[in-house]
Amino acid sequence: MLWIYGIPGAGKTVLASFAIEKIRLLCEGAxxxxxAYYYCHxxxxxxxxIPLLRWVVAQVSRQLGWAPVELKRLHDRGCEPTVPELQHIxxxxxxxxxxxxxxxxxxxxxxxxxxxxxxxxxxxxDARFYKVRILATSRHYGDIERxxxxxxxxxxxxxxxxxxDIQRHIRARFQSSMRLRRWQNSFQAIExxxxxxxxxxxxxxxxxxxxxxxxxxxxxxxGWTVNCTAxxxxxxxxxxxxEVDQPFVKRILLWVxxxxxxxxDGRGINGKLLLEAVSFDLYGIKDNAFDWEYLQDxxxxxxxVRNELSNPGVTDGDSFDDGASCWVTLxxxxxxxFLSSYHILSTPVSAFATSTEVAERQYAVSxxxxxLAARPEDPGTHWRRDREAYCLVVGCMFLGxxxxxxxEDLDLFYQFMDPQNPHYRRFGPIQARAxxxxxxxxxxxxxxxxxPSQFRVPEQAFERENNAEVVLNAxxxxxxxxxxxxxxxxxxxxxxxxxxxxxxxGKHQVAGHFIRLNKSGEVQEIGFDGRVWxxxxxxxxxxxxxxxxxxxxxxxxxxxxxxxKKRKLDSGSMTRG
Length: 577
Known about the structure:
Layout: E1 2-5, H1 12-28, E2 33-39, H2 49-64, H3 69-77, H4 83-94, E3 99-105, H5 114-125, E4 132-138, H6 142-148, E5 153-156, H7 160-176, H8 187-198, H9 207-210, H10 228-239, H11 246-260, E6 269-270, H12 271-283, H13 292-299, E7 303-307, E8 326-330, H14 333-340, H15 356-372, H16 387-395, H17 407-417, H18 427-436, E9 454-456, H19 466-485, H20 499-505, E10 509-517, E11 523-531, H21 532-536, H22 542-548, E12 567-568
Parallel strand pairs: 1-4, 1-5, 2-3, 3-4
Antiparallel strand pairs: 6-8, 7-8, 9-10, 10-11, 11-12
Helix pairs in contact: 2-4, 7-8, 11-12, 11-15, 15-16, 15-17, 19-22
């Protein structure tokens, strides 16, 4: 059995039709070789196991010019045949054959599909049908994969050969079209943009799309919109999601999209982390309320899953039940284009409609709420696999972000920056892991290293001033952003503090520790004690230089009697000042 799977619009049906034609020619030139094909369609609204078998038996009988007596008896009985009865008829027909080829397209569109999947699995495994060879196509759904992964050879439509075919198709259309020749000087740029933007989706490179090209496409593919063929496919996909599961799907897609905007390493979001984050969002629990199989069944071809323990492009959901070894991305960029386009508002699935602005705010708020609930005693520091560590790292990126729009959002960020909240104790161990270079740490995510690992009571004060500590953290992050932007930036709003309050708080004493690498590559604590403005003022460059280049050795900082000496940290803990 051969199983070919891919995203909507990847060309599965075109490929199936091509295979049918090639197999027809093969059978015409061979003795006792016959073929049968069947196209599933969502509009039938049925499990298509019996219709498939009936159609296969009919096609085989016509090509043989013979029908068993048992088939006539079934017909004369006038009742709907059962799967076992039709299987018996097929077994009798196979006695006259050398080979039977069966092609089944769009298996996922059988609703429900349990029986047809079991039928194909039975034909593949049962010794009675050893003469049968099956080709099935479908979108990538977890239930289909679980049945077929062990009994079939699987091929993903997302591979370099598809891109090569799309490129040849586009080139041929350009060369044969009088309407497109006016852009002949830009053929190469348009071709590259189309192949890159299609990302394996054949319908986007179709002729009807090419003739609608405008000059705006000559510089890239960023303005492309959802093709009408993909639009109808997405409508069917979202219509099939039960209402009770819709909040789960919305949240999954939100986190997958949000993660893609954080500019990590392109792998996507960790599967286990994703399920835990959605569990917290929906139910407020810190453990996973969903299993990996459920995610694959419900989200199906809306997401792409890469298993780091398998070959590239191959997944094995049964072997990795919690998703810890899997990385999730959107199946295709048009998934998000559909959800955020005006087209969806006039469809039966408008409940899934969103916008980039709304999604970014929801993602940022979810990140901060997850981070604020981080357990201070939890040892997790792996920001790509641990939910709380992930949220603590990403949360530092939101200073002055347009993703935080309301006063409530800004107040959440204020709490996130407040060192007297329990979650803050997790920053130090995460910073130490980052400095030791245990995993790739994208430069976009170094923001967490800009802030102190811990604070303490200043030497000339009786207590800590948490508002001043928040202002210090905000200024340090702002300095980092200024260097990234190549210009000086104004300090964004800090919670509900007014500009006058921020200025006054800058005169307060603060004290604590940073962690940095020394010239020997060892992680050390370095103390500071002084006024906020003195510590963060650009002329001194003290903490600004330290926070922006934490791996280049530590410059002299504002000294404190208690921590004028540098203390080496072991690899597993932080020393508390």
